[in-house]
Amino acid sequence: MIILGIILLVIGFVASISILWTIGIVLVAIGVILWILGAVGHAVGGRRHYW
Q1: How many Å apart are CA 17 and CA 37, to the nearest integer?
Q2: Any residues with CB less than 8 A from the CB of 23 and at least 6 apart, and which?
Q3: Helix, strand, coil content of the chain in percent (nearest 5)
Q4: Which residue(s) pair with 47 in the sheet?
């Protein structure tokens, strides 16, 4: 999810498409939050680890 968000950020920046930029920021933020939750041991979506 983090990688997809970064790809959308780059495409949105290069092509000047603001909706891709916004979606990319949201995906990166969600990916980082899920990654941190999984790293500290909280079950995310029924799984013990999220990566």
Answers
A1: 31
A2: 5, 8, 12
A3: 70, 5, 25
A4: 44
Give pLDDT tens digits along the chain (51 positions): 888 888 988 998 899 888 988 998 999 999 998 888 878 877 766 666 555
Residue 7 in contact with residue 21, Cβ under 8 Å?
A: no
Burial (Cβ within 10 Å: 0-12, 13-18, ≥19) of residue 24: buried
Which stretch of DSSP H or E encloses residue 28? helix 18-39
In angstroms, rounded to a whole number, what is the distance separating the alpha carbons of residues 13 and 21? 7
Sign of CA dihedral 46, 48, 50, 51: negative
